[in-house]
Design brief:
two-stranded parallel ribbon, globular, alpha+beta
Length: 123
């Protein structure tokens, strides 16, 4: 993931193509595992850099989705026109009932081009 992030470069006009979110006042506050706009904040350094732009959030692991969705809420509040979240990995635990069901239904080794839920193409 670090190598992927390093591929993003600043264009000649010096408009940032990479922004960093900082923990916000609601980062460690309940409700947990629920999206919160105040979970993150956009650093003053990047203020205005997302306004009117399509922003890609790269998340290393997806457990509940609250961090990616919280980042999207923060970026939309900062003026981003569209936010897409790309998750590099999905965390599955066999002791979580909904995950256990998914894991036990898999008949083939993992195929990134095959949806593990429907068996068809992921869309």
């Amino acid at each position: 993931m670090v190598n992927l992030a390093r591929q993003v470069v600043t264009p000649p006009d010096k408009t940032p193509t990479r922004v960093l979110l900082e923990p916000g006042p609601g980062y460690d506050e309940p409700p947990y595992r629920a999206p919160r706009r105040d979970r993150f904040r956009l650093s003053d350094t990047f203020e205005g850099a997302v306004s009117g732009r399509h922003v890609l959030v790269v998340d290393d692991t997806w457990v509940s989705g609250d961090k990616g969705q919280s980042a999207a809420l923060t970026l939309k509040a900062a003026g981003a026109s569209t936010v897409t979240v790309l998750c590099v990995a999905r965390w599955l635990r066999a002791d979580w009932p909904d995950h256990e069901d998914l894991i036990t239904r898999l008949e083939q080794p993992y195929d990134p081009l095959c949806c593990p839920v429907s068996g068809g193409t992921c869309e």
